[in-house]
Amino acid sequence: MSKTARSRPAHRCSECGWETSKWVGRCGECQAWGSVVEAAAPTLRATASPVTSPAVPIGQVSVEDSKFRSSGVPELDRVLGGGLVPGAAILLAGEPGVGKSTLLLEVAAQTARVRTRTLYVTGEESASQVRLRADRTGGVHDELFLAAETDLGAVLSHIEQVRPTLLVIDSVQTIGASGVEGVPGGVTQVKEVAAALIRVAKTRNITTVLVGHVTKDGSIAGPRVLEHLVDVVLHFEGDRNSRFRMVRAMKNRFGPIDEVGCFDLSSEGIRAVTDPTGLFVEHHSSQVPGTCVAVTMEGRRPMLAEVQALVTPSPLERPRRTTSGIDGSRVAMILAVLQQHAGIRLHQHDVFASTVGGARITEPAADLAIAIAIASSTSGIAPPKGVVAMGEIGLAGELRRVRDLPQRLAEAARLGFRVAVVPSEPSPAGGEAAPRRGAVDGMQVLDVTSVRSALRTVGVSTP
């Protein structure tokens, strides 16, 4: 290799840091388009410099400064693992209009209510617009400071003057740093702004919450390194046609990542929903064919959701398969299993399947409830009242066991259900499944081995 080739600056991906000797349009590591830029060749060697604090044995490191502090919103504390940690950087992302600003204004107001200084920086609205929302939701407090800024230098000046304990930036894509190439929201700008804010948060023990935009496919906008810089990544989800909202932890250095928080968004603000099960179960005055209740797990929280199905003769050559809140490919698989292993012929029928209350079911444990609802609508026979079903259906028609079964049964029993249809537990020796019929928390548990036996057990099989 010639001397000229060795001294030529390399090209580096701004997303993941992948390097190449020549420019390419697509990163070979993270497959991002347009992220490879020319990197200047290093001119100085790294030398030793003074340390900020001496290294000490890990047992002598104090943990008093990193204890959880309640955010004032119990459901958010549940997702965070206990509350807000001083010096933590939290990224909250969600679709436009889902309620991110409303939730964080409530958190800021609750923090200010306990005489803790809070700074709310908005780059998307004016200060008067945020004040109007605070008046509507009851979030006006003397310890809650509000600033409308889009320049990083001005934001850092506000932090120096106010010295808050909690800092909210709404949003990180609207803040720009002078002297840095690109427009606010670009890869370089977002990376520089986030790094500066996180550096201040760590050095001054300020809990910092950054609001992030999402792309049309639901991923967080901006460089992927943004998710690596922060300590916690939260996704705020919800259907525009429903008031129900959910916060999921995608990354959490201080707690579990399998927790969810439930909220109710209304014109008066946002409030925590500690028992959301009633939103997804319809209370019928009589037995109705085509319905069944499933018990799903949202993180570590069991939730009951009602599945409804409607099967009608189709005049079309290709019958319709329409779903809402349920994976369409999963329903198609269940229909194939019902036809092959349960003798239910649906190739000349339209099938509609949906959930109640806008719930979204992605867990395979709801397969059995979907199959019972479809079979019940086909036969016109309603399942017995007070029955819940849970179990994953295999392509051979067998039922597979689900995780956290005791928690699911306890939640169903608490809400008044008296019969549960579940897959049989395998025998300790690995042989055939061992039947287990008994009572758990006052609930009768019926074990079944296949989808055919499950339909026969609840009495909805086709005559």
TrEMBL record:
Residues 65-214 form the RecA family profile domain. One of its GO terms (biological process) is recombinational repair. Gene3D superfamilies: 3.30.230.10, P-loop containing nucleotide triphosphate hydrolases. The keyword Kinase does not apply. The keyword tRNA processing does not apply. The middle region has homology to RecA with ATPase motifs including the RadA KNRFG motif, while the C-terminus is homologous to Lon protease. Belongs to the RecA family. RadA subfamily. This is DNA repair protein RadA. It comes from Nocardioides piscis. The lineage of its organism: Bacteria, Bacillati, Actinomycetota, Actinomycetes, Propionibacteriales.
